[in-house]
Design a protein that fits this description.
398 residues; mainly alpha; 13 helices; 73% helix; extended; coiled coil
């Protein structure tokens, strides 16, 4: 039943995700691998020229480069950048932690910092995810309120509602927003437009200040707002900016709004994906049912009566499993289950049926005692016997 449907949905989603990942890996490999090979060849050529020009061995040069990589992990760069762990830098870091962005350009290097990050991130990420979910709920409520207000305004213009009419009781249907909740596709469209507007505005800010191209700024917005956080492009890392305080505040606001919109959009898209999976499973189930019904009909066409064929056309999966059994006991158990529902709602008909069966089994008319003959009641079977005896006692008392 419910558990089997959930398992089927889970397995289908897992298969689709794996196929999606395989396709993505093939596309990215075809696009990026040639560039990686060309870059590696140029780098090897530069190393060879550098060692030859300065009379250095390749081993010494590689050892020096490894030391620079270790320093780079700690936040050291060739160009001057602002300190990573001053208060503003630490605040930027915890923002990337609780929002699950995790650029990777700033990471704790001490054991104490790593231990504190585990507990800090555990609570911070959970609280931020809750905030994102509540943001989506508030957004849906605002959309419903706006839709309802616009509808009421149109009705007032047409004269259906009075202009001075205000809300009545809080529990009335007019005050309720339940009937004005927008569809998932409408919410998805609104979130797509909002995310696009925020990304375009943020990119217009990043392009002149960070010195990126507009396309790179859009790329950074998606990577940051979707909490992927590669770390190849990171905002607010230079040592000095023009209007530095205003830029950092704008950067914080854009990232917060972008993450809320994109995260909510992901939730809505996941609902659409779930609906699509349910539709696929429904179609597959219908095809399987029709195929099994045709196979069942062709295998039993010489033994099934036409009336039974008509009654089996709308068969369900559960009853199909029962009908495929070769034992009569399984079929009888299915029939008794349907009889229970029938008899539970027809107790009066059961009593009449029992009376008729009793009279037929014992011979009609049945020999009765003097009291029974006088009062016209027979013994009956089961509940009917109890009822008849009670009526006979009542009649004798009279």
């Amino acid at each position: 039943g419910r558990l089997n449907a959930d398992n089927a949905r889970f397995l289908l989603l897992a298969v689709l995700i794996v196929l999606y990942m395989l396709c993505g890996a093939a596309v990215f490999s075809a696009i990026e691998l040639p560039t990686e090979r060309e870059t590696k060849e140029r780098w090897e050529e530069r190393l060879e020229n550098f060692t030859r020009r300065h009379n250095l061995s390749r081993a010494e040069l590689r050892h020096f480069l490894r030391e620079y990589e270790e320093a780079s992990v700690a936040g050291i760069r060739v160009d001057d950048i602002r300190p990573r762990w001053d208060f503003t830098g630490a605040f930027y870091f915890v923002g990337t932690v609780v929002s699950t962005i995790g650029f990777g350009m700033t990471t704790p290097a001490t054991v104490g910092g790593k231990i504190f990050l585990i507990f800090y991130g555990l609570i911070g990420c959970a609280g931020t995810i809750l905030f994102f979910n509540l943001f989506l709920e508030r957004l849906i409520t605002v959309i419903a309120y706006v839709m309802k207000s616009c509808h009421e305004r149109q009705l007032r213009r047409k004269g259906v509602l009075p202009h001075n009419g205000r809300r009545g009781s809080g529990t009335s249907e007019v005050d309720s927003l339940a009937g004005w909740k927008p569809s998932v596709y409408y919410v998805m469209l609104i979130l797509c437009v909002a995310s696009l507007i925020i990304s375009c505005c943020a990119s217009a800010m990043y392009t002149p200040i960070e010195g990126w191209s507009y396309f790179d700024s859009l790329y950074f917005c998606f990577v940051a707002f979707s909490t992927i956080g590669f770390g190849d492009l990171v905002s607010s890392q230079n040592i000095r900016y023009e209007s530095q305080g205003l830029y950092r505040f704008g950067n914080f606001v854009f990232i917060l709004m972008g993450v809320c919109c994109i995260y909510s959009l992901f939730n809505v898209i996941s609902i659409v994906i779930k609906q699509s999976i349910n539709w696929i499973l429904k179609k597959l189930a219908c095809k399987c049912c029709h195929r099994c019904q045709r196979r069942l009909f062709h295998s039993r066409r010489n033994v099934v009566m036409p009336g039974n064929v008509r009654s089996r056309r709308n068969i369900s999966i559960e009853t199909d499993v029962v009908n495929e059994s070769d034992t009569d006991g399984r079929r009888l158990s299915g029939e008794m289950i349907s009889m229970k529902d029938f008899l539970a709602s027809n107790k009066v008909s059961l009593a009449i049926m029992q009376k008729q069966l009793s009279e037929t089994a014992n011979g009609y008319p049945r020999q009765m005692s003097s009291n029974s003959k006088q009062n016209g009641f027979s013994g009956g079977v089961g509940a009917l016997a109890i009822m008849n005896n009670r009526l006979a006692e009542t009649s004798v008392d009279r």
